[in-house]
Amino acid sequence: MVSRARKGVISDWWWTVDKLLLAALLGLMFMGLLLSLSASPPVAKRLGIDAFHFVERHAMFMLPAIGVLIGTSLLTMRQARRVAFIVLGASIVALLLIPFIGFSAKGATRWLAVGSFLIQPSEFMKPAFVVITAWLFSESVRQPDIPCNALAIGLFGLCAGLLVMQPDLGQTLLLSFVWGAMFFMAGMPWLWVALLGGTALTGLTVAYFSFSHFSGRIDRFLTGAGDTFQVDRGLAAINNGGWLGTGPGEGRIKNGLPDSHTDFIFSVTVEEFGIVLAMGLVLIFAFIVMRGLWHALREHDRFVQLAVSGLVLQFGFQAMINIGVNLRLLPAKGMTLPFISYGGSSLLAVAFGMGLVLALTRKRADSYSRGWAKPAGATAFAV
């Protein structure tokens, strides 16, 4: 037990961090490892590798992910901003290099090879982008002589453009939803909001007529024609599970799901553990999002409000898209279920993003400006 009387980084962290939020996040991570035991062995067997290959790699990535989650949550507000700035810069450089030295799979080039590992820079770019965008929006009032809103718009255009080049339209849409929500919460004029909405609709229309794989997914979702094998199998697995599931390891339909350990792990969850447990999983995701928004509502610092709101909305939107695809409520899109799906980059990047949420929502003394006023002697536009 950590005593309140003891002064130090760990003791201060323990008494200031949101323990309920931390417990929910760690619980999701361990549930992801458990569900990997159910979902990944059939995939490994089809590939002719050890049945627990993906389970072992998931566990291997989960340990550093816990370290990233806890380590990031130790940061002060200013340190969190600076770390996000470094991660965003490194991610943008990596995304610029991907067209030249990136690794391609399934018609997209999204990964960089680092030794025997594949890193997806866009996963790390997303949470860092949210924090820096929140900072720019909050500085637009504190520093009206600096075009912070224009910089935020330019940053969004740059990051969205790099994602479209891969192409990764699903992540582009996710980034756009979160940025649009933050744009609205920052109190931008309604004319700007309307222009943003019109631009988004125009972008979707252009993407539909420019990218055959994007239009194909939309058409298959709307008409049911074409190759819907994996979506159909995922929905069949959900129907087979019923309320209580078939039991751990007893699912049959999961054996024919190519991406049962990643995009369609929610379908495997329902098949083997039932709708009841799956609803519990959804409630944990909802609790994390609502807990983060509750913290944001109680904050007076504009940067913290926007950053925490953006990070938890990004977390929630990603989960909603993944589950929506499994339920055939949304067009098929390769997007992981946070902390649950297999994927080293996703696991580490989500841990980084939620670590930032824990860091920014810690109880802290009012040693910084809370609100819109610029602190006396503060350096203009300091990160």
From TrEMBL:
Originating species: Pseudahrensia aquimaris
Sequence intervals crossing the membrane: 20-39, 59-76, 83-105, 146-163, 169-186, 273-294, 306-327, 339-360
Family: Belongs to the SEDS family. FtsW subfamily.
Subcellular location: Membrane
Entry keyword set: Cell shape, Glycosyltransferase, Membrane, Peptidoglycan synthesis, Transferase, Transmembrane, Transmembrane helix
PANTHER family cross-referenced by the UniProt entry: CELL CYCLE PROTEIN, PEPTIDOGLYCAN GLYCOSYLTRANSFERASE FTSW-RELATED
Recorded catalytic activity of this chain's protein: [GlcNAc-(1->4)-Mur2Ac(oyl-L-Ala-gamma-D-Glu-L-Lys-D-Ala-D-Ala)](n)-di-trans,octa-cis-undecaprenyl diphosphate + beta-D-GlcNAc-(1->4)-Mur2Ac(oyl-L-Ala-gamma-D-Glu-L-Lys-D-Ala-D-Ala)-di-trans,octa-cis-undecaprenyl diphosphate = [GlcNAc-(1->4)-Mur2Ac(oyl-L-Ala-gamma-D-Glu-L-Lys-D-Ala-D-Ala)](n+1)-di-trans,octa-cis-undecaprenyl diphosphate + di-trans,octa-cis-undecaprenyl diphosphate + H(+)
EC number: 2.4.99.28
Superkingdom of origin organism: Bacteria
Broad class of the protein's primary localization: membrane
Protein's name in the database: Probable peptidoglycan glycosyltransferase FtsW
Topology in membrane: Multi-pass membrane protein
